[in-house]
Records
---
Amino acid sequence: MIRIAVEKRLSGANGPFTLSVDLQIENRSILTLYGKSGSGKTTLLRMLAGLEKPDSGRIDVNGDTWFDSNSGINLPPQKRRVGMVFQDYALFPSMTVRDNLLFAQEKKEPTKVDEMLELTDLGALRDRHPETLSGGQRQRVALARAILRTPDILLLDEPLSALDQKTRSQLQDEILKVHRRFGLSTLLVSHDKQEVFKLSDSVAVIKNGRISRNGSPHDVFLDRITSNKFSFISIILSIRKVDCIYLAVIGTGNELVEVVLSERDVANLKPGDEVLVASKAFNPIVMKLKETRQKPGS
Amino acid sequence: MTLDFAPLLLTLKLAAVTTVILYLLGMPLAWFLSQTRVRIKPLLEALFALPLVLPPSVLGFYFLLAFSRQGWLGSLWEHLFGHQLAFSFDGLVLGSVIFSLPFMVHPLQAGFNAVPRNLIEASYSLGKSKALTMLKVILPSMKSSLLTGGVLAFAHTVGEFGVVLMIGGSIDHETKVASIAIYDLVESLDYQSAHLYAAILFVFSFAILMTVYIVNKKLDLR
């Protein structure tokens, strides 16, 4: 069990604010921090890793105290067993894929590294240098390296944000696979709701430095939806007039839809507005998609 | 006419010794300057860059005052090592180290600055000490800066003249480096020998600079 209860003054884009959270991560579970950029998610991760110092509070990990402002305990990053996956991966450019993984081990065990290379489908890339790899491949190396540290907690800082949708979905499966195999307590930072749903056991929404909601993804994200209604937060991209009606293109997640608007709707809407698009779902069409998943290797 | 190779060899020896000392001195100094947030950082940077802009004769003049028997450093040196600092090889090395310092420190400082912060943090986070991180992560990712610093310091020392003229004294096998030898030969109107030395230095300098550009290009591509 991991508990992080800390406070820190931060200067954000809209002036200073206080990051103040109290979170628990159950063993072997994935907790996601969800929130806008600049809300303090990454700072929280960095405080766990010892890369940033909270103003006050304490961090306890499986019975060990990593930080306690009252007794002046503040373990350096080297002494904290965290597996950190940085947003831009932070692979060592002068080392091959295999050397990157070997570097993570305290006691060199090449057989374990080779096992990990196979598990993450990186065997064929073992002697390549990071800059010759694709984003998805780099991501997998970063994840493998973090796990070889044998951490108490895995910290994933928006690990998939720089990847395209397909690679992202493959890597989400990969993260789940690795998580099931190693059972690491994981703290994930994400601003992708689908990702949060797919990966996390619980989610904490962080807003202006505070946890505004906390619970299962279902409870946190779906409470405003009644059982017979779909609704999505969307953005109006364009509105055009066709004969006597208006057609608006609306972006919902990664999908674009065109909807009909009346003159009255259009009066107080303009492109760029954030809107809630809702529809009764008495009779939705639900079709199974063809299995398109390929072997990861992109 | 027989060509005396001693001045050329002395030049190479001086440049090699100076470069080795500058690596040892320049790396911690450049690391400090790239990391520090002290208020007086601009002052320190200006001080260490001074040899870039000062006329070598100015630098040489102050070295001469400090290195002479009456100077504080010169008298201390003589007390410790039993010989005079001015007009000695040791004096040339000390002068060259100061004279070429910015040529080592600037590329290294730029190299340290260019190493992404999160590579260092990733290494710490993987449990690696600061020393190990420096050795395995930071220095290997700035190979071209290390090479540039070393070569510039070396080449600049080879090309040194004004400072050596002031504190050297043109003593054979001790302080008579190639640039001084050329000057002496021209003074005595022996243009043919001067030509030979000059041509050798010319080709040599061109060759090392060319090598640096080729190797750096390869390092960047890798």
Note: The longest helix of chain B spans residues 191-221.
---
Amino acid sequence: MNINFTLVSQAIAFSIFIWFTVKFVWPPLLRAIEDRQKQIADGLAAGERGKKELELASQRSSDTLKAAKQRANEIVIQAEKRAADIIDEAKLAAKEEGKKIIAGAKAEIEHEIFSAREVLRQQVSSLAVQGATKILRREIDSKAHADLLTSLETELK
Amino acid sequence: MASETELTPTSYIQHHLTNLTTNIGEGPFWVLHIDTLVMSVLLGVLSLGAIWMIVRTATSGVPSKKQAFVELLIEFIDDQVKNTFHGDRHSFVAPAALTIFVWVLILNAMDLLPIDIMAAVYENVFGLHNWRSVPTTDVNTTFALALSIWILTIYFGIKVKGIGGWLGELVFSPFGKNPILWPLNLLFNLIEYVSKPLSHSLRLFGNIYAGEIIFLLLGMWAATGAAGAVFGAILGAGWAIFHILIVTLQAFIFMMLTVVYLSMAQESH
């Protein structure tokens, strides 16, 4: 246990080692560690941001979905209303048409009745004339009573 | 045991505790312990060089296993320094703490090498009769470290507080600025300044030196016969395992005290 020059030489070696560590060993690794810490922090921040954005997007999508549903509902309601309108219109038109057809039919019937009656009348009048002719043939000279017969015929027509 | 001369317990211990010396001048001071110097510089270059090689290729991406190990070490030390030292630790204190921890740890760890086998290797391979493997069992090493740090504390104290502030603190604290108390304050501070490097260096030296002595005693016991060899081997293994803790703990304590002294030097009382 004797103090000697070894102490001085060891102190010099110690100083050199400290200088070496301060200069060459510590800074690069510290830089690497700090860079990695920064990268991790950035990554975490990005993840957080992504999560927030996802939340926003899902919020937006649900909003859009809700709006679309509402719109679809409106469209359905409108369509139903329109359908009801069309049906009503169609009913109205059909009624009109029916009325028209009925009216036409009625007119036709009237016409038929009229012409039938006319025919009937003609027939009746000719029958009557024939009957009268037959009756009168014996008593009336057709030549003498021709104008009378003609006038009767026109009257019956 | 490598000695061919008569083997007594005294000569055995003395052989293991004798440094390889060389005189570089007149007087007892101008002596160099070659073994201490070569071992410490060699181990320092190896350990710090290995760390440097790994750090040179350090990436901020996915680290290799080696880089992850060095990062663990550096972050562990950085954490310790951060808790104790307030200020810019990256420019000096934290790397210095890393140097001290790694270097002292590897120097202490030489204590775990089997002394007699190593002595035989030194004797027969390198032809060195006296060669001590553990530089921290040389009081010169521990004093060199402690005194360097002591000078650094004074340097940082003056740098932070200015020469006036530093001298003022010597006479004004810890008891107060009353002139009657000045001599007492000065005495107190001088005792503190003397005791710091002494306790700092002798704690490390004492622990590692005592550990080596225990190994030597167990080695002596092993030489007494079969029973001694068995017990010596078992207890030697036990002591070596326990010594792993001491080796690490002393390196850690030495580093922490360095950081504490340096941070105390920069803070006002």
Note: The mean pLDDT of chain B is 87.
